[in-house]
Amino acid sequence: MSARIGELVGGCASLAALLEVSAYPKPGNVHRTRDFTDTKYEHFLAGSVSLSARMMEIAEKGRETRDWSKLGLGECINSAVADMMNWQKGGNVNLGIILLFTPIAAAAGSVMKEGQVDLDELRSVLHEIIQAATPHDSLNIYRAIDAAMSTENLGHSDELDVKNDSSKDKIIEDRVTPREVFSKCKERDAICSEWVTDFNITFTEGYPYLMGRLEEGSNINEATLDTFLKILSDHPDSLIQRKKGLSEAKKVSERAKMILQAGGASSKNGMKMIHELDEELSKENGSLNPGTTADLTAASVFLLLLTDWRP
Length: 311
Hints:
311 residues; mainly alpha; globular
């Protein structure tokens, strides 16, 4: 039984990443009609496929044990990053997704019944799993981030900087857990914030908005695109903040809000504005790429699929 559930969770993870990257024209990001110079749509497709094996594995572990400290979240994240790099040559295409999906997949394996999950139960177990993660998980997460991200995209930290080798020694010496690590960077990175708020944006903003748009009759492309814009409008993208500063990130968020007010992806005027914003952001060579928002959108789609919704 656990193997079948693991396969289902792994499949949902890959499909969620595929649907998110295929949403178009997702402003400032790679999508099915937009490539970057070195990172292209096909790299993201390959990275999405690479997710399934590790998400299946961690879901099966979540099914088989209640000792969450033995799950090996960090090891799974590190292995998933290695898989991502082995499957394609476009560099880091889904580290953020891996960081978000791994604890969700572990919790989903534990609570799934008859092919779907109850989201309240999922979030409760997710909280337990994150609380139980160990310093060894932190060390593996550091290794994964170090392997996937450049200093330009990651930024610098005065404490426990990923690019400083002494940080790894300090994690073990001081027994620093992932939750403690992410607490230190929650103000400058939305993914870190998710880990210390029981995935608040994903569960209380992204998924409900996505589900609402679908119930109103939008197709999955429109609903995913509008969910991306909704998250972006309410939360200035932390990747843009690290590259260009908070002021520039807020400007992009304001544009997203204006698009939604004009009707979003399901309206002619809204779609025109989306295309215009995509063109403008894409001219900045990735410096105005709302990549963290894309990861949060993917996590919202992952929840949708785990509730047994299908395109």
